Amino acid sequence: MKREIWRETPFGVKLLLSTSFMMNLGFYALIPYLTLYLTGSIGWALAMAGLVLSVRQFAQQGLAFIGGVAADAFGYKGTMVLGMAVRAIGFAMFAFCTETWQFFVAAILSGLGGALFDPAGSAAFAVLTPEAIRKEVFAFRNVLTNIGVVGSQIIGTALSAVDFTYLSLFAGAVFGICALVSFFLLPPIAATSTRHSMWESMVHVLKDRQFVRFTVILMGYYYLSNQIFLTIPLLVENVTHNKGDVGIVLSAVSVSVILLQMKVSQWMEGFSQRLTLIGVGTLIMGTGLFMLTFASSLWMLLLDVFLYALGTMIAVPNLVDVVPRFAPRDLVGAYYGFNGYSIAVGGSVGQIAGGWVYDQSIQLEATWLPWTICLLVGVLVAWMLYQMEHSTGKIGKDYAKIARS
């Protein structure tokens, strides 16, 4: 980030960036290795492990709309702190699970915590960050996320090699520390929707047809993005026969973003059609995943995931910047919360169906199948977002002016 932009960034946003980095460090240290733990030490099928991940995902994003509305009504800081504390408990619980139902309880608690802090945190970023530097701050946030991912792979690989218990407790402790830091240091962020009841906020979002359409289309994006947690780690282990290479491949995605995200964002500054950019990024992600069909070595895997990472560098900053452009200022949390349904449905389908298709592709000796589906999803999302941005009619034209402002 440029120094002048960093100087313009308020203290509250800098603190949010710091806690975001720490939470991503804890999250990505645990989640990829949870899949390997469930399918390895516990002995579950990949589809069953995917079900646990999807329950966590759906508990978070399925309730995020309510969490976002609550954050608008009662304040962003308190909602964030509560959510961080709940996730800390959920992640730490994985260390002590022995029965199937216990894993699902831990997954639900972990998701519920995210439903509280995620839309509140995103809304706080949007409200506290001056609009003139918002896109740069979101791009830098994506860089910090990936720095956290790199660090998480080192920690995750080391702790999982000793005992998964330590990894689970570490992840829970990170979220607990973030809750304490936010409680004591983050300045109060007043509720912005005091003139709306929670019901009125929900109805307002649901009547925004363009935003609902946008949310539905994004389900395809999150289908692709969630393969990084499930099928890609399994593919890497199957191709290289080395669990340590999972961390190398996931870190390669993050290192690419760290080194190139700000440069890619600068290249995109002159391109104002944000929805089309999200579609182009999603298509590149799908292409990178499709190329995994032909990967037979670690170097080929790294090349393919670099292409996948390039797609995320194009899509992510525009994706998070578009949501507050739909939303009235006093309903930003509700809009971010409702947008979470794209992650809830797309991510859950990506984890359940993705895991099932991967298992079936091995049995049928059709290893191309899951990755071809990813390519088709990328093509579909790109086409639908392009159509949305260039749609005719009063609503479409009105949105076009907002999206290109």
Automatic annotation (TrEMBL):
All copies of domain Major facilitator superfamily (MFS) profile, residue ranges:
12-390
The record ties this protein, via Pfam families, to: MFS_1
Q: By its UniProt entry, which InterPro entries does this protein fall under?
A: MFS, MFS_dom, MFS_trans_sf, MFS_Transporters
Membrane topology annotation: Multi-pass membrane protein
The Gene Ontology CC terms held by the record are:
plasma membrane
Q: Give me the segments passing through the membrane.
A: 12-31, 37-55, 102-128, 140-161, 167-190, 211-234, 246-264, 276-299, 305-323, 335-356, 368-386
Q: Which SUPFAM superfamilies match?
A: MFS general substrate transporter (SSF103473)
- Localisation: Cell membrane
Keyword annotations from UniProtKB, A to Z: Cell membrane, Membrane, Transmembrane, Transmembrane helix, Transport
Molecular function, one GO term: transmembrane transporter activity
* The protein, known as: MFS transporter, DHA1 family, multidrug resistance protein
Species this chain originates from: Brevibacillus centrosporus
